[in-house]
Design brief:
The structure holds two protein chains of two kinds.
Chain A: H1 5-16, E1 20-23, E2 29-32, H2 34-40, H3 50-53, E3 54-58, H4 64-70, E4 76-80, E5 86-94, E6 107-112, H5 117-123, H6 137-172, E7 181-182, H7 186-196, E8 201-208, H8 210-217, H9 219-236, E9 242-245, E10 250-255, H10 261-276, E11 279-281, E12 284-286, E13 289-296, H11 305-321, E14 327-329, H12 334-341
Parallel strand pairs in A: 7-9, 13-14
Antiparallel strand pairs in A: 1-2, 1-6, 3-4, 4-5, 5-6, 8-10, 8-13, 9-10, 11-12
Helix pairs in contact in A: 8-9, 9-10
Chain B: H1 3-28, H2 44-58, H3 62-75, H4 80-87, H5 93-98, H6 103-110, E1 119-125, E2 128-134, H7 143-158, E3 161-170, E4 173-182
Antiparallel strand pairs in B: 1-2, 2-4, 3-4
The chains are: A alpha+beta, B alpha+beta.
Pfam family, one (chain A): GGDEF
Protein name (chain A): GGDEF domain-containing protein
Domain GGDEF (chain A): 198-332
Chain lengths: 349, 197
């Protein structure tokens, strides 16, 4: 061996692969590249046993330096023993037997953080200068950071769009005059109730004499009355109930509890009494009433919106026929009764 | 034009001249609502209009505004993420200059839709360089002025002392002369590789 050959080799390797170690036949570290020295952060690194510091995790090798030599050129997975259990990738190349470069039986091990470089950079305070000039680690760090910046921007955009969507949906389902839900909300609300499996009642309310308020006192008075009605309905329902303005002077109430006939009848009666109270508007007095048809989900084996709306309508029709200002609960026999009486009956107002 | 560029213009104008000035510029440029989304694309003409309206309202040459945008992108706290990304390009200012050719590719690597005009550095020796900026098709504004402001701020960031001069535009190519007086003139701002993680 030429004197100084190993030092020259070490100096070259320090630049080409700064995270390398030169290990002699006994497994002792005889030289460490600058980054390896920084990462290992061990006093008196030279002379330390390589296998005290590292465990070869994969592939399975024969113990000691001969094992490393036999695995020449293969991808090796090491674990740096210590609290962090840092995983490292590496490759080993044996010294040639002819002593040209160094003592025979030794090995050069070059290490890399692989994908773990992002955490390692913070843990070991690594700088660009700690990586070989040709190493793409810094580019990878750039990319990781760029990715998080861009992902962040996307996420913010998504949040804003989500917020805008929620507002748009809210607006799409809201009746601007009364602030109640509008007809579009009927199906989704009903679907939600049916899916929840709880019993509920559907009340179809149609205002009586509302048209004459519009005709005699004007549309401003009509709007005022509608807002007043909305307020009454809101006051009479409880949490979990729903009020929807389904048409000009038509409302649907979904009542989630209080679904016995007696309770519904009491609620219907109270609503009608409150609707019949005179409403003052610009020195005039508007008087209306309301007819209500009700049906209960427990009447059906499988409640469906179309059927329940139809039956509530029928009950409402019956209430109109019965002289308006009253509440009728749907029952299966009602259809025949209504149809028999419908000849010459008073059409609903 | 990519929203990131438009958003940078907007943030610069708002942070520097106030919300009212920005609102007025946005109104004159018919930008409603008066803000850009960083991740959406906008017609190039809109960017051109915003810059023209800003120049008119602020009574400043457009080149000056563009240069200030470049400086803002590196030095303002709002743009800290971008400063960090730029610092990945080189360990010192000389390194950074030599990596300028990669700038459009780096930008594309981060955001594939973000297209910057080609940038090329020529080393004249004795710390004299020139940077050419090719005008992107129909980009409508002189990116070289933005790059000049950005280079000035990056020199500060690295602690280097430089003289920079925009030499104008010929055949659609802008040229910036760079004279590096002292690479380590002052202590630059710190940059740690893993700080943002």
């Amino acid at each position: 061996m030429r004197p100084g050959a190993i030092e020259t080799l070490g100096a070259l390797l320090d630049v080409l692969c700064p995270m390398h170690l030169i290990v002699d036949a006994m497994g002792r570290i005889t030289h460490a590249g600058p980054t390896a020295t920084k990462v290992l952060d061990t006093k008196a690194l030279t002379g330390r046993d390589f296998f005290d510091l590292f465990e070869v995790r994969r592939p399975r090798l024969d113990p000691g330096v001969p094992g490393l030599r036999a695995a020449a050129g293969r991808r090796l997975h090491f674990v740096l023993r210590g609290p962090a259990d840092t995983e490292l990738k590496g490759v080993a190349v044996p010294f040639p037997e002819d002593r040209a470069l160094g003592p025979p039986g030794g090995v050069i091990v070059d290490l890399s953080f692989g994908i773990g470089v992002i955490e390692a950079v913070g843990r070991h305070d690594l700088r660009s200068a700690d990586f070989a000039v040709t190493d793409l680690a810094v580019e990878m760090l750039y990319l990781a950071e760029a990715k998080s910046v861009v992902t962040d921007a996307w996420q913010k955009l998504n949040q804003r769009l989500q917020g805008a969507k929620a507002v748009a949906e809210q607006e799409a389902y809201t009746d601007t005059l009364t602030g109640l839900l509008n007809r579009r909300a009927l199906e989704p609300m009903m679907r939600r109730l049916i899916a929840s499996g709880q019993e509920f009642a559907l009340m179809h309310l149609d205002l009586d004499y509302f048209k004459s308020v519009n005709d005699t006192l004007g549309h401003a008075a009509g709007d005022h009355v509608l807002r007043h009605v909305a307020q009454i309905l809101r006051q009479e329902i409880r949490d979990g109930d729903t009020v929807i303005r389904v048409g000009g002077d038509e409302f649907v109430l979904m009542i989630a509890e209080r679904t016995s006939d007696a309770e519904l009848s009491r609620l219907g009666g109270r609503l009608i009494r409150r609707l019949e109270a005179p409403v003052a508007f610009n020195g005039e007095v508007a008087r209306i009433s309301g007819s209500i048809g009700t049906t209960r989900s427990s009447t059906y084996a499988k409640p469906r919106l179309a059927v329940m709306m139809d039956d509530a309508d029928l009950a409402l029709y019956a209430a109109k026929q019965a002289g308006r200002g009253c509440h009728v609960a749907f029952r299966p026999g009602l259809r025949n009764a209504v149809e028999m009486r419908s000849v010459g009956a008073v059409p609903p107002v | 034009m990519h929203g990131l560029i438009n958003r940078a213009i907007e943030l610069f104008l708002r942070d520097t001249y106030g919300q009212e000035a920005w609102d007025e510029i946005a109104r004159r440029a018919d930008l409603a609502p008066p803000e850009f989304e960083a991740m959406l694309d906008y017609p190039d003409a809109l960017t051109v209009d915003v810059l023209a309206q800003a120049a008119q309202l602020l009574d400043k040459p457009e080149a000056e505004i563009l240069e200030d945008i470049g400086t803002y992108l590196v030095s303002h706290p709002t743009a800290e993420a971008l400063r960090r990304l730029l610092r990945f390009s080189g360990a010192d200012f000389t390194d950074f200059l030599h990596s300028l050719d990669d700038l459009p590719a780096r930008a594309r690597l981060a955001v594939p839709q973000l297209k910057l005009p080609p940038v090329a550095l020529t080393d004249h020796g004795q710390q004299m360089f020139s940077v050419t900026v090719g005008r992107r098709e129909a980009a409508g504004f002189a990116f070289g002025h933005v790059l000049l402001g950005l280079l000035r701020a990056m020199a500060d960031d690295y602690g280097a002392l430089v003289l920079l001069e925009h030499k104008g535009c010929r055949d659609g190519v802008e040229t910036i002369d760079v004279q590096l007086l002292e690479a380590a003139f002052a202590t630059g701002r710190s940059f740690v590789l893993g700080a943002a993680g």
